Amino acid sequence: MRSTSLPQEIILLLCQELAARRDFGTLFSCSLASRRVASIALEQIYSIQELSSISTGDDNNRLEWARLWRSIILSSIGETAYPYCVYVRSLSIGNLDDCLRDIHQETRVRNFFFEGPMEQFYVVRDGRPAIATIMNKCADSIIKRIKMSADSRGATVALEHLEGTHIPHDILPGWIAQLRGLRSLRIRDGSVLGLDAARAISQYCPNFADLTCYYYVSSDADDDLASFFLTLRPNSLRSFEIISKNEIGPNTLMALNSHAKSLRSLSLRSITVQAKKALHQLFSCTGLETLVIENSGLYNWVDMEDYGEGVLKGIIAWISSCKSLKDLSLHVPQALIIGNGVLMAPDIRLTSLSMLDIGLVSEEAENLDWAVLRSQDRLKSLTLGLMSNLNTNGLIIDQGMRLVDSICLLKNLTSLNLMLSYVTAVEVTQFALSLPNLSEFSFSGDMMDDTILKHLGRLSKLKVLSVNALSAFSFDGLYDFAAKLNTPDHMGIRVDILNQVGELKFRESDFAQLQQYFMGTLQGRIEITYFMDPDELHETDFSDTE
Q1: What residues does 500 pair with on adjacent strands?
Q2: Beta partners for 421?
Q3: How confident is the model over 194-222, as a mean pLDDT?
Q4: Domain range holding 481?
Q5: Are residues 456 and 411 in the same domain?
Q6: From start to end of 347-380, where are the E strands?
Q7: Is the sign of the CA dihedral 286, 287, 290, 292 positive or negative?
Q8: Is position 518 within any domain?
Q9: Is there a single domain that holds both residue 358 and residue 462?
Q10: Taking the complete model, does pTM exceed 0.70, yes or no?
Q11: 299 part of a folded domain
């Protein structure tokens, strides 16, 4: 029978499906099948190269990591069979920076990386590799080749995501101008986001929508970032996230209103007092689906009630007006009061809610009526707790706030995180009996023993269990618990017992038996750490010196 070749369209669909599954092994095998298949398979491999295990750059694949980047850079100067860099959709210059710093420590890999045509990228200053300069030269070569290839084919640049660690202020606008397909930008230092970069995005990147900054520490940060947002095309930004230390404030938040119709995700982490005072100025941003507001640290908390009664009410009113809100995370002083007020809004239906109060729970917060939580029947993830540098036991869940009963009515809940709360064995049992869909459950609080294991073992979908409370579990209790988990839905389960009483430390043979069962039978793991571990105490014993 005469054989026929698969049409290119079918090969493309197959390779795209393999890429969606991140099946690098099969894609690589396809690239060796024939030249006509190789071009398609390699394009899919390099389109998701940042997701491969090789890109992590651990000690076991340092050479492969260097080889990956070497192939991308060489392709930018036409020294490879295929133009790999043209296939890249997410260019992580920060990852390249990490790779260069890593191979600097190993002569053999460094010599391999810069041999032959790569020698032109090697720059030495004062007898040492100038890594920042090398990185910029490599990235510049890649971006220029991507632009040139797209122009020659009359096509859109495939590169959509750009991430950088140390991109110079004067270089970034030029790179952006060449990347007309750019959708997202992830920058470590937000101060490089000048007006020139904003103008380049506005002029050359019609699809740009997502911005992430790791930090933005500058005396002019609030004014500069506000100007950046105002220079972008109005209502073009879909998401903005700032992760670490920053000095943004009222001007930045007010400027975000120019993207009120497009903004769907807003993550303001490590925000300062001045920013918290101005949160209500985001009044026009009511299309949010995800909102994260986090304090800048335990030592920088100020009671929002001290700002004046109108500020807290303004924040609640603004968040309550976000009728499409699905994910809400509040890690700030008065988080409970704000969250409770938002839940009173009739149109709010969340799928994820995280409320971590900071400082001390006020008397008003202690008297909140949490019956409002019962209406959140779509809620799948719930985190509650208290963060404080003071000597507190966490948020006491059963303190007349009707929290326990309300949580027990959330039948769709799959994740319950009470690690910064105080619960008793009675409440843990109530949750285990009332929430059949729980797959992740973590908690702290009162002493726990085998009693709770009998009920936790009935959670048919449990995959992650973390017990931070003091515990007095027995070997038999844990082994019986593990035996109940021997079902397909529990395969891969992870159990962390973080404060087992040291006096009840298991024998090595017993713990080895537990580990073997979890790893072999359940394909998961169990870890146990001890409070007042007797072995560690013995190691630190010392006799009085004269």
Answers
A1: 471, 530
A2: 395
A3: 95
A4: 447-541
A5: no
A6: 352-358
A7: negative
A8: yes
A9: no
A10: yes
A11: yes
Q: Give yes or no: residues 373 and 474 share one domain.
A: no
Helix (H) or strand (E) holding 528: strand 525-531
Domain end marker among 374, 393, 424:
424
Task: Quickly list DSSP for 163-199.
Answer: EESS--TTTHHHHHHH-TT--EEEEEEGGG--HHHHH
Vertex 365: Cα angle to 359 and 371 (nearest 5):
140
User: 186: which 2 tokens?
Assistant: 């992830």
SS3 content of the chain, % helix, strand, coil (to 5): 45, 20, 35
The pLDDT score that the predictor gives to residue 543 is 43
Tokens encoding 525:
């793991």
Tell me which residue of 233, 291, 242, 283 sits closest to 262, measured CA to CA. 233
Distances in Å between the alpha carbon of 157 and those of 17, 70, 150, 182, 468?
Answer: 22, 21, 5, 8, 49
> Residue 61: pLDDT above 50?
yes
Whether 534 and 486 map to the same domain: the answer is: yes
How would residue 4 be classed by pLDDT, with cut points 50, 70 and 90? Answer: low
Question: How does strand 124-125 pair with strand 128-129?
Answer: antiparallel
Indicate whether 407 and 459 sit together in one domain. Answer: no
- Candidates 331, 366, 324; CA nearest to 345 is 324
Residue 444 has pLDDT above 50, yes or no: yes
- Answer yes or no: do 350 and 456 share one domain: no
The beta strand positions in 393-524, using DSSP E, are 395-396, 415-423, 440-445, 464-467, 494-501
- Nearest of 422, 431, 477 to residue 453 by alpha carbon: 477
Q: Looking at the structure, tell me whether residues 412 and 326 fall in a common domain.
A: yes
Q: Is 422 helix (H, G, I), strand (E, B) or coil?
A: strand
Angle at CA 495, nearest 5°, toward 489 and 499?
A: 160
Under a CB-based contact definition with an 8 Å cutoff, are residues 270 and 242 in contact? Answer: yes
Say whether 21 sits in a helix, a strand or coil: coil
Instruction: Measure the CA–CA gap between 497 and 514, rounded to whole angstroms.
Output: 13
Q: Indicate the DSSP class of residue 3.
A: -
* Alpha-carbon distance values, 182 to 77, 88, 91, 185, 542 (Å): 22, 12, 11, 8, 62
Residues 374 and 419 in one domain: yes
H/E run at residue 252: helix 250-256
Q: Which of 359, 365, 313 is nearest to 337 (CA)?
A: 365
Does 78 map to a domain?
no
What mean pLDDT is reported for the chain? 91
- Domain total in the chain: 2
Residue that is written with structure tokens 């032109």 in the block: 120
Domain presence at residue 102? no
Hey, which bits of 179-289 come out as E strands?
184-189, 210-215, 239-242, 265-271
